[in-house]
Amino acid sequence: MTEFLGEVGYLHTAEEHRRQGHGDLVLRSLMEAARGKELFATIQSKNEPSQRLLGRHGYVRVGEAWPSERVDDDVNLFIRPKSGPESGH
Length: 89
Fold this sequence. Notes:
Blueprint (H helix, E strand, L loop, with lengths): L3 E5 L13 H12 L4 E7 L3 H9 L3 E8 L6 E6 L10
Parallel strand pairs: 1-2
Antiparallel strand pairs: 2-4, 3-4
């Protein structure tokens, strides 16, 4: 069973700074700081930019979405399989 160090969550880039690679830089830094331990993320279904960001780093959506308790949307779990491009395996 995979143990996760923590969750990548609430990553937000100010609109005037979007699409400049800041999200990629932050996510890569978090993954490096995790030192080989796994991270996961929960992302709302409507948040396609965050889903694309995670996808670029080898994360995939797993399981069934569930209703958010905070907003009118579903939430999805994303993990990075050990064979992902950023895993080094």
